[in-house]
Structure formats: C-alpha cells, structure tokens
Amino acid sequence: NERYRASVSARSRQTSRKWPIGCGGAANAYLVLVGPSMGRSTNGGRPLGNPRNLGKGSMSFDWGDHRKVRWTRLCAAILGDQRRAEALTALLNLASQHSTSERAISVADLQAGWLKRIRPLLREVRPRIICALTNRVWDTIVPTLVGPPGEIDECPFGLARKPIGFRIPGCAFTTILVKPHNHPSRFLSNQQIDELGRACRWLMREVA
C-alpha cells in the first residue's frame, strides 16, 4: 500500500521523537498492537524512550528468546508479509512496568495508560488496524471509541471479539479494532493467526 511504499522509499531512520516507556516501532504504523505492559525483562531490561523509527526494520521483536517467531508471524499475517510487518508495526503498552501477570496491573492503571499515554499518540501514528492483545486491553479501549461504523457483524471469520470500526479524531478513514484469540507471548496457534490475518484483509476491503 501507499504507506509501505513511502516508508521504504527513503533510508531507514530514527526520528527525533521518542516513544513512551514500554513502546516501540514504526512512527507511521499501519498496525498498532496494544498490550497491557512489558513482559519479563530480557537481556538486562529494555531501553527507555525508544526512538520512533521510519522505514525498513522499524519494528523488531528480537527480545532474545522464542517469542520473535510468533509475534512476527502475527504481524505478517495481518499486513501481508514480514517486510511490511517490520516496517509498519508499533507495539504500545498501556502500563510502563515489567509484569508477566496482567492481573498485577490495576484497572485504573490500564485506563490511565490508554487515556494519557497511548490514545493521544493515535492522531500522530494514524493506524488503520489496532490489535488489542488481551481481553482487559479490549475492555479498556472499547468504551472510549467514537463511531461510525461500530461493530462489524457481517465479518465472516471466527474472531475472539467482533471487530469494531471507529474514527481517530482528525482522520478521514475508519480504523479497525481487532483481537487475537490469545496474547502472542502465550498460546496462539498458526491457524488462529492466519484466520485473523484473513479477517483483517477482508475488513480493510470493506471499509476502504
């Protein structure tokens, strides 16, 4: 698509702006993954204030363990291939702490993370697809969305939640909120990943 061609037409670079703690990836992400928090710390922790990247390889899931394969496959299924996944994905976490247990994060912290940390970024990033990685993240985001079109009942794919279309303030296009069957750091089968990818491509054609 046009956003991908624009991203890879110039040299990959870091912008002067930084992501909030616990976030990273492409400054112009077509796909935004929203998680509850950073998981366990690996390799001595993750850098604070990652730069907002543009171009090839803007998003890396190489955290020094086995998770890279499943995360990359999920994003590639949604965006079409691995090159697009690495150029057009951002991972934005609601809470800034390391936690392997989502239950350790309060509802108030999740809501504050969405309203104060992450939602204001959407006007700048302008994603077309937002993927809520857990039920609690989904339940935090949905009450704040502004239509149209709302729930998309006719989606012919078996997803964990009915996809929702909404408008980011200042954007003329519809953004789609979807959810995988499970968090990609936990159990998520290749079949479930591929089904979500097919659903996202269908949704983008429907709302184009």
Note the main attributes of this structure:
208 residues, alpha/beta, 7-stranded mixed β-sheet, two-stranded antiparallel ribbon, 9 strands
Task: Explain what you see.
- It is a single chain.
- By secondary structure, the chain is α/β, with parallel strands linked by helices.
- It has helices at 2-9, 67-79, 82-87, 107-118, 122-125, 135-141, 190-207; strands at 13-18, 23-25, 31-35, 51-54, 89-93, 129-132, 150-151, 164-166, 175-178.
- The strands form two sheets. The chain has a seven-stranded mixed β-sheet with strand order 2-5-3-6-9-8-7. It has a two-stranded antiparallel sheet with strand order 1-4.
- Strand 8 and strand 9 (175-178) form a beta hairpin.
- The longest helix has 18 residues, at 190-207.
- The model has no long low-confidence stretch (mean pLDDT 87).
Q: What's the count of strands?
A: 9
Count helical runs. 7
- Low-pLDDT residue spans: none
Rg (C-alpha, Å): 16 Å
Oligomeric status: single chain
| Straight-line N-to-C gap | 12 Å
Output the strand order for the largest sheet. Answer: 2-5-3-6-9-8-7
The string of secondary-structure elements, in order, is HEEEEHHEHHEHEEEH
| Shape, principal axes of CA atoms | globular
Q: Strand pairing plus helix content: what structural class? A: alpha/beta
Helix share, percent: 25-40%
Average the pLDDT over all residues and give the rounded result: 87
Major sheet details = 7 strands, mixed
Strand percentage, roughly?
15-25%
